[in-house]
# Entry
Amino acid sequence: MALLELAPPGAEPVSVSDARGWLRVGHGDEDALLASLITAARERVEALTGLALITRSWREVLDAWPQRRLSACGQAVRTGAGPLINVEAVRIYDAYGQASVWSPDEYRVETGDPGRIIATAPFALPRPGRRAGGIEIDFTAGFGPAPDDVPAPLREAVLRLTADSYGGRHAPDAARGEAGLPEGVAHLIRPYRSVRL
# Structure
């Protein structure tokens, strides 16, 4: 399974000037460093939550429909990132490597988080013939194109992770919580993490 970003986000959830203000850095000498730390922090928050903070296009490549993401008696599947905005195409490969597009008339899309693709009766999730990479889903997910579209706790988590990577100069809490995160960050993202039963 692979989740591929088809294009980078048009913006980051926080700007370099936001990070400078948070860190109380009055100069722009390290703006390139801060920009890369912001990107790394955003990617970490996205990996931990399964959410795309800034809207962009994705391609998910699957060998089979993942059991842990199925619902509705196996007739619905969650996408690899949310909040889901749209599904552009679902391609299924046969044993000879030929792709066919699953007709949108045979499924509906439930947007939001979690976003799902739901086979409409009497149809079912199609089975790929190719054992590896038999399913490709092209979709759009994210909270929105602008930093202000991202929930404030997730933006703050990106800022705190950026500060922690920068050297912890502004992070008052050195305590580490789940996944080795600074305790404040773990608390901020906890409501956005998917729960697995």
